[in-house]
Amino acid sequence: MASLADLVSGMLVQLTNKDQSRASASIYMHENRLIIAEAPVPKGYPAPLIFRQSLGWLDERAQGGPSSIPLP
């Protein structure tokens, strides 16, 4: 599934393993860096909340990412 985090496009992946445990991952490419966030979940546990939250990006001066730039 396609995803957008702070105006950076990426992918969300959710897998169910043979033992019914689940794995969720977010994959983004930002400024030539590959960012992967993953979370395994045992059988019977709720989905990881990290993937229901927002990611943001900071530059080398700790300034906000693309969505913090005002649009004209």
Model description:
The chain is an all-beta fold and 72 residues long. It has a domain of 46 residues. The protein is built from no helices and 4 strands. A 4-stranded antiparallel β-sheet has the order 1-2-3-4, with no helix packed on it. A hairpin with a 2-residue loop joins strand 3 and strand 4.
Give a short synopsis of this structure.
With 72 residues, this protein is mainly beta. It has strands spanning 2-5, 8-16, 22-30, 33-41.
Instruction: Return the average pLDDT rounded to an integer.
Output: 76
Number of helices: 0
The number of strands is 4
Mind summarizing the main beta sheet?
4 strands, antiparallel
Helix content: under 10%
Q: Approximately how much beta-strand content do the residues carry?
A: 35-45%
Instruction: List low-pLDDT spans.
Output: none
Q: Which of globular, elongated, flat, extended, rod-shaped describes the shape?
A: elongated
The secondary-structure element order is EEEE
What is the straight-line distance between the termini? Answer: 30 Å
Helix and strand composition category: mainly beta
Output the radius of gyration: 15 Å
Please give the order of strands in the largest beta sheet.
Answer: 1-2-3-4
